[in-house]
C-alpha cells in the first residue's frame, strides 16, 4: 500500500522549497534510510499502512511543514480527511477478509 494513498497530505511535499538547506538534508536522510528498507526482504504482505516508513517519517515532516505554509487550510483539511477515510476503508476491508 502506497504511503501517498493512505496519507495524501504527503503529496504536498512536492510544493516545498527544495532550495533550503534543511530540506536538502532531509531528503538525503530519507533516501539514506529508504535504501536499506527497500532492500530488506520482508517489508510486509498483509498489512495496512507502512510500518517501515516510521524510520524516516520524522524527516518527511520537515519539508511537509515548509510546504504547508503555502497551502490553503481547506486543501489541507480535505487531504487529511481523505487520508482518514481511505485508511478506515482499508481497515474495514482487511477485517472483513479475515
Structure description:
Helices cover about 60% and strands about 0% of the residues. The chain has about 100 residues and is mainly alpha-helical. It has one domain. The chain is flat, with a radius of gyration of 15 Å. The relative contact order is 0.20. Keywords: Membrane, Transmembrane, Transmembrane helix.
Write the layout of secondary structure elements.
Elements: H1 3-6, H2 21-39, H3 57-68, H4 73-96
Helix pairs in contact: 2-3
Keywords: Membrane, Transmembrane, Transmembrane helix
Transmembrane segments: 21-43, 49-68, 75-96
Q: Main beta sheet: strand number and arrangement?
A: none
Helix and strand string, N-terminal first? HHHH
Report low-confidence residues grouped into runs of 5 or more: none
Secondary structural class:
mainly alpha
Shape by Cα distribution: flat
Overall pLDDT level: 89
Beta strand count? 0
Gyration radius, in Å: 15 Å
Q: Helical stretch count?
A: 4
What is the number of domains?
1
State the share of residues found in helices, binned by percent.
55-70%
Distance between the termini: 18 Å
Percent of residues in β-strands: under 5%
Amino acid at each position: 500500500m502506497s504511503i501517498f494513498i493512505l496519507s495524501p497530505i504527503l503529496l504536498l511535499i512536492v510544493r516545498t522549497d527544495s532550495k533550503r538547506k534543511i530540506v536538502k538534508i532531509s531528503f538525503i536522510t530519507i533516501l539514506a534510510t529508504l535504501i536499506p528498507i527497500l532492500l530488506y526482504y520482508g517489508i510486509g504482505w498483509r498489512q495496512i499502512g507502512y510500518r517501515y516508513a516510521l524510520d524516516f517519517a520524522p524527516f518527511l515532516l520537515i519539508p511537509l511543514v515548509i510546504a504547508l505554509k503555502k497551502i490553503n487550510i481547506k486543501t489541507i483539511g480535505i487531504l487529511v480527511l481523505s487520508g482518514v477515510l481511505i485508511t478506515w476503508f482499508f481497515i474495514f476491508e482487511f477485517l472483513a477478509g479475515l
